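ok trying again, last paste got cut off:
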Amino acid sequence: MRLACAFLLTLLVATTRAQVPGAGRQVDLDIPAGSLDQALTDLALQTGLTVIVESGTRAERIITPGLKGSFVPEEALHKLLARTGLRAEAFREGAFEVTVQERVKPLPFAKPVESNGLSNALDEVEITGSHIPAISPDVSSLSTYSREDIERSGATTVEQFLRSIPQNFPLLNSETSTAAISPQAIVNVSRGTGIDLRGLGPSATLVLINGQRVAPAGLDGSFVDISMVPLAALERVDVLSDGASAIYGSDAVAGVVNLVMRRDFVGCETTPYYGYATGGGARERGLSQLAGTDWPSGGAMVVYENHQEEAVDASSRPTLVPQSGRYQVIPSQARQSAVLSLHEEVAAGTELLADARYSRRDFAQDYLSSQLASTQAQGGAQTIGASLTAVHLLPRQWRSDLIGAYAGEAESVTTLMSTIAHLFETRSSVASIDWRINGPLMSAPGGPIKLSLGASWRWEAFKVLAWPESTETGLNRGVLGAYGEAFVPIVGEANALPWAKRIDLSLAIRRDDYRIGEAKFANAASHNPKIGVLWSPRTGLLLRGSYATSFRMASLAQINEATDTALLLPLSNPTVPAREINTLYVTGGNASLRPEAAKSFTAGVDFKPSALPGASFSASYFHTNYGNRIAAPPVIGPVTSIYAQLDALRPYINSAPSAADIQRAYGEYTVLDPMNIGPAGVQAIFDSRLQNIGKTVASGVDVRVESNLRTDFGNIDFLLQGQYLAQLSTQPAPTTPYVSALDTPFSPPIARMQTNIIWTANGWTASTTLDYTGSYKDRLIAGGHEVGSWFVVDGRLAYETGRRFASTPLENAAVAVSVSNLMNRAVPYVEGLANQTLGYDPSNASPLGRRILFQVKKRW
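nice, full thing came through this time. structure:
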């Protein structure tokens, strides 16, 4: 009945008004928090929009935080529907129909979102980067990619989508995992994919799933394998490009990536897809299935996804350097994943939320680990995870969250190198209990001061079950943490000044204590503050800045010396080209590693001009000073190039080892000798074990420009985002000068830009993506020849029927065709990598070529 009344009232308002506010005109709104159906009615009364709500949406059960401020009417409608599982479709000028897409049941304690012309009006219970619910993320550099953004990208996997984000440098992916490519990627034996914000290393980016930590992957447990996450289960991706150890503890040096899973879905959705590369190989096929239901006090949802992808042979790509044997530049992969989500309001003001996930991925790859050594690798990884959250509303608008979580990862890989087989098998796990309490502390002229306090306990374990010529070994440790966070609105609507419409202050501090039982390992503690300031001198303009310290503890595998390994190889000597040096290349952990520490500063401006409704501009400057870096000596490019980089690597090379040095190395390390050189032939020892090597300094600028244009022939959305790196320098050793990683292979480019243009009308969507990776120098050879830039154009065309074919099999169906690398651009040639990676840099370009994807989606 209420929906019918709202519908009649909307029609009455629409017919009695002389005209609907013109397109692009802003209207002052005051829509209080409450049920969505009432909010839509208020929107119609205050703007003159005609809003027709489809029966079955249950809008009266969805709680909205409301809107307050100046908005374009159409924009206000979309903000009210954000993350409700409903959407609005225009069917004539000034008229919209609200239909079911996915139904979400937010917790009923969000505050109205106050608009300054810039807020994204995020109405999630918790926003990445803060434990205080419903606090605007404007102080930090936060980018949110919605479910719609993910679907429009044409990606079929999480790694495909995240690889396109300019701030992410994909050093660890399935194409960079062969032993001849990069020493940093050797640990990725299972061909996973990590996230590396700013190029500071995958271990410097904290990756979360639903705000919870994930068990690490790799032989050294230094990264989270995002390839195990099913794309169909993602609701959104939050990318916080700022130090956040004051909120989350260790690892959040370069930032945080939070993969937020879909929690509620009503009905069924089936999505099959098929894709292939026009150059051969890489055929993809997959299927995702969603099913969900709800009831008055809760709901449940399950997601299943199956993804398979063929390998790509180097011989099918004529621009790559020919090889003497079979070389698959991209391995074959097969993955199955399942996600289960439940929520139930067990009592008034108390809700339980439960999640469980499982994923298994297998791969196979043939390649050449050197000009003479043929290698076959196969294996896979398996992950599990579960969490249980109890949310309880307390008096005076306070709330308590108690969260228990567990995650585990298992990897098993077999390599066959020149008839010598090796088995690598590891297990990692993390269990945690977190308790948080937050709410308004007191009233102030600028608004309520809000506080969040919490404590956490975490248990980490990493075990090696199989390693070449070694026995089972492992470590575990406990971590205790406590934190406090405050949000202080100094100036707000009630006490606005001519020069300040808004001033906010954000404060946070956290302390973590690490304890390992064995006496040989040093215990450690770290406390880290963060302060952020936001100033809005006028409506539509925000100035922000933040300062934070962050830290990262070495992973358990990195401090475990039991798996230290030495590889004996003949390496070329550029000073005497005809002579090779038989080098014992030592890799592994180090029990004496100290925590890494970083200081980060960011400053930014956000501008949304009133003269250009729907347009916004954002720019952020960042500077990070990262000390006590835990890393192997910084080899640029493949391991075979160390003698071309003696200025930086000389402190780690014993160029004249004694017999005692060689004997000691053979006694301490597992030695792999594929060429059968023997200890008598060792001429040098390169210590590439992990250590606190020095410092890294990174600085640059992020830019983001958005525009939403509503026209008579459809809606046009424009997004330009990019990163410019001004500095990325590493001090290889405490006594050596800084060495720039910019303008080199296997490092982030100075400039990375991406442009998206999307047109939508009457169920049709056409989009194009322009992706640019800047040029750089090939410093692996004399003269430093320039490596060309890589400019790739993607396109997508989709049609969604909605209710246009009601009561037929075509109702709520969609078809799409996507083309990646439309122009079939070849990878830029890197001469210095001709003998190692077939002449290209797989961290900055892919030899896949043009890829065509067909997708069908049907909601039942």
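cool. The two ends are 26 Å apart (CA to CA). Helices lie at 2-16, 36-47, 73-81, 147-152, 158-163, 245-248, 646-649, 659-668.
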